[in-house]
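> Could you send the Enoyl-CoA hydratase prediction when you get a chance?

Sure thing. Input:
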Amino acid sequence: MTLPEVENLLLKLERGVLEVTLNRPESRNAMSLAMVADLNAVFDAMADERAIRVVILRGAGGHFCAGADLKQMMAGGMKPPVPGEIDPIVGFSRSFGSLLRKVTKLPAVVIAICEGAVLGGGFGFACVSDIAFAHVDAKFGLPETTRGLPPAQIAPFVVERIGLTQARKLCLTGAQFRGLEAQRLGIVHEAFSSEEELQTKLAETLKQILNCAPNANAVTKEIILNVAHQDMEFVLDDAAQKFAACVRGTEAPEGITAFMQKRAPKWAGGN
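Output:
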């Protein structure tokens, strides 16, 4: 696929693994209008792309993401909207919610590397990833209410990630906590204390993902994500149809034959 031109991200695509690095280190990778637009462009391009099997989301300069760029918002957003036009604050807020949904629904497996500031929108990205790693000293939190704002587009995804009870506490206190607590709460799956340890864990995880058939993984994500949003009878009926399509597709015959022949399937390892 052809990746879009972006100014606030670093993109690296190699053997089906796309590294997306938020690249505003001077602001701890705070979300500007331009960065949100860049991310939307990248994930729009990937919406139906099965050749990209993994997306690794990370921040430059030792920080994941410190949330919205409040300086930019306050500089241009206090004026009332022009009659007949969309309120720019509403537009910016809603575009970030749409971005989080796009990340959730990607057919690729999304891995978030959480270090430094993982606040506000950065917290939201952690919550919509499929797999998340956190540095033990990473600082997580939803500080919006301490600044007179609600975590409007982020809160629903926090509820989905860790449940209503824990989400209430985190959203309504603005409390900040470190990586091991994020692991205990279920925001992230594993913690690391050094780059070497992270790379070891990441390599093992990538190996596991790339041993899975890409279409089967994408279909599995669809089934899992339907559970919280659709009637269970619909989910099961839909899953049965997806299962049948996979049986008659190209991956299942190859995967089953490879298993019986005691060899790796053609897709294993990203080949």
